Give the backbone structure.
Amino acid sequence: MDTKLQTQAIALACIIVLLLTGEARADKDCKVDEASLISCLPAISGNKPAEYPTPDCCKALKKADLPCLCSYRNSPDLKKWGIKPDLAVKLPGKCKLAVPKECS
């Protein structure tokens, strides 16, 4: 794994820890396997994010409670760790999933 990807994976892990230790627990409340969210990183972070999410990312999102995940879009921690919320909320549409109003 290259250094940039390792840094992004660590950043996502930190975000997950922050969410898990907060009032709401994203992993349980949003029905998402936090480890599988790492596959979404190339599409939501970095200077040149991938245009489309990976198949593994879409698979994870298909099982997740998308309105719940999108409710984290205004968390200041996302930007702090290099996650681009505007790109993250577009993932459901790019995965050809119904886009909840919380992601609009």
